[in-house]
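Sequence, please.
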C-alpha cells in the first residue's frame, strides 16, 4: 500500500517533465555552448533522482525520521518542477527566470526550516515559537530579494532587507533557542547533523547573496550579468537542496541502525 502511493508521488515530477516539454515551442533547443542552460538541465535531473531516492529511503528508516526524509523529497520535487520551467525560460529567452525562482524559494526555504525543527523534534520537545521565528526571518529575506530582483525597489536597499532576514535566521540557529536546545538535549549524531546544517545555512546560503551581488550590484548591466547570477544560484541549490537532504538521510540511517 505504502509503495503504491510512493509510486504515485514519484510519477508526478516525471509527468511534469513530459508535459512542460510539449507546452513550450520546439524550435529553440539547448545549445552545446549554453553552460547555464546545461546546468539547469543537469540539476533538473539530479533533483528528480534525489526525490526518488529520499521517498524510497523512507522505507528504511524508523518512525520520526520518515517525516524528515519526506520533507527532503518534497524540497527536491518542488525544485525539480521549477527547474523545468526555469530551464525553458533560460534556453528560449536567455533571461533570468526570477518569478519561478522566487516561487520555488518561497516554498522550499520554509520546508528546509521545517527540517531544522523536525531534526530537533526527533529527540526532544521543541517549542513551536522556534519554527515561527525561523519562518519570519525567511519571509523578510525572500521578500527583500524579490523586491530588488523584480525591480520594485532599488537593488541595494532590497539587498539589505534580505540580509537582515538572513542574519536573524543565523542568530536563531547559533545563539537563540534552537541552538541552545540542540546543545543541551541532542545525541552526538544529531548534534553533528545540526552543526553541519548550521554551516550549510551560513556558508551554503551565503552563495545566494553572492549571486545577487554579481547579478545586480557590480554596476554592470544586469542583462550581461544574467549568466553569472543563474549559474551561482544553480550551484547553490545543489548544495542546499540535495546535499542538505543527504545529510539528513545519513543521520536518519545512523540513528535507525543504532536502535535496531
Ligand atoms: C532552495 C533554495 C534556497 C535554500 C534559497 C535560499 C536563498 C537565500 C539564502 C537568499 C538570500 C538572499 C539574501 C541573504 C540577501 C538578498 C538576496 C537573497 C534573497 C538572494
Amino acid at each position: 500500500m505504502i509503495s503504491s502511493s510512493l509510486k504515485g508521488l514519484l510519477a508526478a515530477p516525471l509527468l511534469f517533465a513530459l508535459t512542460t516539454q510539449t507546452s513550450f515551442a520546439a524550435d529553440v533547443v539547448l545549445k552545446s555552448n549554453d553552460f547555464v542552460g546545461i546546468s539547469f538541465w543537469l540539476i533538473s535531473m539530479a533533483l528528480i533522482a534525489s526525490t526518488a531516492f529520499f521517498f524510497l529511503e523512507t522505507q528504511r528508516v524508523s518512525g520520526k525520521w520518515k517525516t524528515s526524509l519526506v520533507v527532503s523529497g518534497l524540497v527536491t520535487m518542488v525544485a525539480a518542477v521549477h527547474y523545468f520551467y526555469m530551464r525553458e525560460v533560460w534556453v528560449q529567452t536567455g533571461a533570468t527566470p526570477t518569478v519561478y525562482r522566487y516561487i520555488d524559494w518561497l516554498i522550499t526555504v520554509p520546508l528546509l526550516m521545517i527540517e531544522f525543527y523536525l531534526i530537533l523534534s526527533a529527540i526532544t520537545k521543541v517549542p513551536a515559537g522556534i519554527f515561527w521565528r525561523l519562518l519570519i526571518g525567511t519571509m523578510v529575506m525572500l521578500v527583500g530579494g524579490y523586491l530588488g530582483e523584480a525591480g520594485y525597489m532599488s537593488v541595494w536597499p532590497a539587498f539589505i532587507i534580505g540580509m537582515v532576514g538572513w542574519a536573524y535566521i543565523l542568530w536563531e540557529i547559533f545563539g537563540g533557542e534552537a541552538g541552545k536546545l540542540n546543545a543541551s538535549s541532542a545525541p552526538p549524531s544529531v548534534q553533528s547533523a545540526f552543526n553541519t546544517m548550521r554551516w550549510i545555512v551560513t556558508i551554503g546560503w551565503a552563495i545566494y547573496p553572492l549571486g545577487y551581488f554579481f547579478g545586480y550590484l557590480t554596476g554592470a548591466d544586469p542583462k550581461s550579468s544574467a549568466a553569472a547570477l543563474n549559474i551561482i544560484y544553480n550551484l547553490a541549490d545543489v548544495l542546499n537542496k540535495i546535499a542538505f537532504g543527504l545529510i539528513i538521510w545519513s543521520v536518519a540511517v545512523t540513528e535507525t541502525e543504532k536502535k535496531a
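The chain has one domain: 4-259.
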